[in-house]
Design a protein that fits this description.
- This protein is of the alpha/beta class.
- 44% of the residues lie in helices and 15% in strands.
- The protein is built from twelve helices and eight strands.
- An eight-stranded parallel beta barrel has the order 1-2-3-4-5-6-7-8, surrounded by six helices.
- Helix 2 links the parallel strand 2 and strand 3.
- The mean pLDDT is 97.
- The structure holds 1,3-dihydroxyacetonephosphate (13P).
- The site of 1,3-dihydroxyacetonephosphate (13P) has 14 residues, from strand 8.
- 1,3-dihydroxyacetonephosphate binds next to strand 8.
């Protein structure tokens, strides 16, 4: 049995005051981590504040990091710093990072390795554009992203990371992939993992869906055989909505 994982990706939203208010609102009500992993991935400058105030069942993640330990990289954040301040997860290779900051599959792979060097759980993103979806190239494209991201990892590492399938055309558009469509692509990702690392690993690895997930559609998405949780943007910003999402996962 794979434990569901719901991760909020706040992107470039919330001030420190707003983030702390959110944490106070949810802390008493986040379901036990025995049933669901609940994660908030926040902007880097407020991560430490959130780690200090996280309740027993909430975990904090970063949205990006560099693949080197230190260096002259103005504006970047390192994995050793994230580990040092108590962050436990990191989103890697989000489509917005790939599109606006030119992150390549090679960068993504280096970052995944670096996350493991510092005990961070990587949430590794993949997903196709509308053009690729409409021309029938989704499975092939996503396969290439997943193979590149996981290159050189051990079976143990792959079993413990999280993959997030986020079709770009469904992000922030209100246009969700149907649960069947999401499940089919995620099944395809699981079979890519099986081909590379074997069945035990492919049955263990958790694969989230992301793209306009909301309290109104989470039940249906989580009812699918291969969808193990969600990576949520807009609907993770409101505390009531975030709680509805994590509570939905308890029933999975
Ligand atoms: P939305 O939930 O706002 O569509 O964003 C999805 C996403 O990109 C999460 O990483």
């Amino acid at each position: 049995m794979r434990k569901p994982i719901i991760a909020g990706n706040w992107k470039m939203h919330k001030t420190r005051d707003e983030a702390l208010q959110f944490i106070y609102n949810i802390n008493q009500n986040v379901p036990s981590s025995e049933f669901v992993e609940s994660v908030v991935c926040a902007p880097a400058p407020i991560l430490r504040d959130l780690v200090k105030r996280q309740g027993d069942s909430l975990r904090i993640g970063a949205q990006n990091m560099h693949y080197l330990d230190t260096g002259a990289y103005t504006g970047e954040v390192s994995a050793p710093l994230l580990e040092n301040i108590g962050v436990e997860y990191v989103v890697i290779g989000h489509s917005e990072r790939r599109a606006y900051y030119n992150e390549t599959d090679t960068d993504v792979n280096k970052k995944v390795h670096q996350a493991f060097n510092y005990n961070l759980v990587p949430i590794v993103c993949c997903g196709e554009s509308l053009e690729l979806r409409e021309s029938g190239q989704t499975d092939q494209f996503v396969k290439g992203q997943v193979e590149a991201a996981l290159k050189g990892l051990s079976k143990e590492q792959v079993s413990s990371l999280v993959l997030a399938y986020e079709p770009i055309w469904a992000i922030g558009t209100g246009r969700t992939a149907t649960s069947e469509m999401a499940n089919d692509t995620i099944k395809g990702i699981r079979s890519v993992v099986k081909g590379l690392f074997g069945e035990v690993v492919s049955e263990a690895v958790r694969i989230q869906y992301g793209g306009s997930v909301k309290p109104a559609n989470i039940d249906e998405l989580l009812s699918m055989s291969d969808i193990d949780g969600a990576l949520v943007g807009g609907a993770s910003l409101d505390s009531e909505s975030f709680l509805a999402l994590v509570n939905a996962a308890v029933k999975k």
